[in-house]
UniProtKB/TrEMBL annotation:
Domain Nudix hydrolase: 1-137
InterPro entries: NUDIX_hydrolase-like_dom_sf (IPR015797), NUDIX_hydrolase_dom (IPR000086)
Cofactor annotation: Mg(2+)
Keywords noted in UniProt: Hydrolase
Protein name: NUDIX domain-containing protein
Amino acid sequence: MRIRNSAKAVIVKNGKLLAIKLQENNSTYYTLPGGGQEHGENLHQALERECMEEIGTKVEIGELIFVREYIGKNHEFFAKHAHAQQTEFMFLCRVHQDSFDNGSNPDTGQSGTEWIPIKELLNFKLYPQAMRPQLISYFNGERAATYLGDIN
């Protein structure tokens, strides 16, 4: 199996993080907008395409703030993701609107989007969950590591 690259958008407005809301197996969880890089795309192009597909809007892409790896066999979903390995590049992004519909090609189980208060991130099932304290630190102006390692 090959290693997949993914680009994710960290969109913050008025102290809230924009997240994709997903419903699966009677459970609600959240992820950042974005997804897999396709052949011939650079990371910015992948992120622009994925945001149009998932949240239906253009994003202004800023600096790279986090890099996360996911090696499926090492985490809670190992039975389903045993062969998965992905490197995610998370960019600080801006949008010019406050509400979003699902885009042209939403993720399976995507029920919409939600603005989550950054101060309350630990109360939400946002994946990768180990990144939540890093996001809180970053937006509190504290030093946060860029490379997060193999986390979920």
